[in-house]
Structures are given as C-alpha cells and as structure tokens.
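Co-fold these.
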Amino acid sequence: RKEVEQDPGPFNVPEGATVAFNCTYSNSASQSFFWYRQDCRKEPKLLMSVYSSGNEDGRFTAQLNRASQYISLLIRDSKLSDSATYLCVVTEGGGATNKLIFGTGTLLAVQP
Amino acid sequence: NAGVMQNPRHLVRRRGQEARLRCSPMKGHSHVYWYRQLPEEGLKFMVYLQKENIIDESGMPKERFSAEFPKEGPSILRIQQVVRGDSAAYFCASSPKTSGSPYEQYFGPGTRLTVT
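Predicted complex below.
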C-alpha cells in the first residue's frame, strides 16, 4: 500500500466549476498535512497546510479526518490558472525527522 | 526576499562523471531537505540536514550519493560516478527552526540532471 494515495486524474472541468480532491495516508503517526501544487516541470509550491478543524483560503478549503486518515481539497469557482498537479503531502510521523511524504498527485485541467 | 536558490538549473553529465548540486536556503531558514523526482513519478525524500549535521539520510542511496550543509555556504548534494538512472529533477527545500508546527517547507526551482 502506498503511504499517500491520490486519484491521479486527470480531472477535466470547465471554468467556474467546483472540484474536490481526496487523499488517504497510511501512517497514523503523521502529524502535519499539506496541499502543494506543481506546474509542469516546476517546483512544488505550498498551497495550504491542513488543520484538524479544517481551513479555508479564498476559493480553497482543506479538510482533515484523522480517524479515517483522509484529507480533502475543495476548489470553488475554478480558474484556468488552477490547472496544475495537486500534491497531497504528509510528514512521516513522530521523531526528529521532518521528512515529507508525497502522493503522486492529481492532475487538474480547467477548460475555458 | 529571495527564496530557495538552486544551481545549476540544468546539468548534463556523462556516465561515470560527478554531479554537484547546490542549494542555498531561504534567509532565516536553518533546515535543508533534498528530494528527487524521477520522470513521471512523485517526489521522494533523500536527506535532511541542519548546519554541519545530517539529521536523516534514510532516503539516500547507499552508494555514490552524499550531502553536506557546511557552516558557511550552500548545501551540496554530490553524486559520484553518475548512471543513466540518476537522471531526474533534484529539488531542495528549506524550513525555519521547527519550534512551531507544521513543518512548512519551501522548494527551490530544482536542478534537472541528465546523464548521457
């Protein structure tokens, strides 16, 4: 079983649509959770951290369910510029390491 | 306010040569991480360093790969006797002291290594 699993997509949606990505992680000791976005042949960019209470940043809402080991990202009113690969990322677990474990990403293509 | 800097951005090496990849963390960040992204794959952790210390190298291949973060200067990822399978994008990330959480890491633009 992969440590972080995501639906690879692609998700093809029209501008203005709402799209949701889901992610599951296998290590119950993971303590920190993130969504990054990666444009083609570019570096990952931090989109948002994910907190247990859920958090929102503009059109983006992230949710975390520790009991189910499940993370989600909701994008409302999609823009063409949202087209990218969205990476679900968790830390490995307790201890001194800050190792990030990446999912393979979900590709989003927003169509005009 | 410069972000994480990496150089070179592109590096071509013949099989058997050495590759040296450099990373300067964001100002105020004392933690450096190296990740590798093979073609069509996700990012994989390689090593985590603080100044003059390797904290976690569990993702480093056992041979040919080494990393350092000296007291002065950038962090260096060194690959000796490169092989075609080393062709990948190598990303460096940095974070501030982890007195708080979460451990947000910010990535540099990467070095694309091509081994011919």
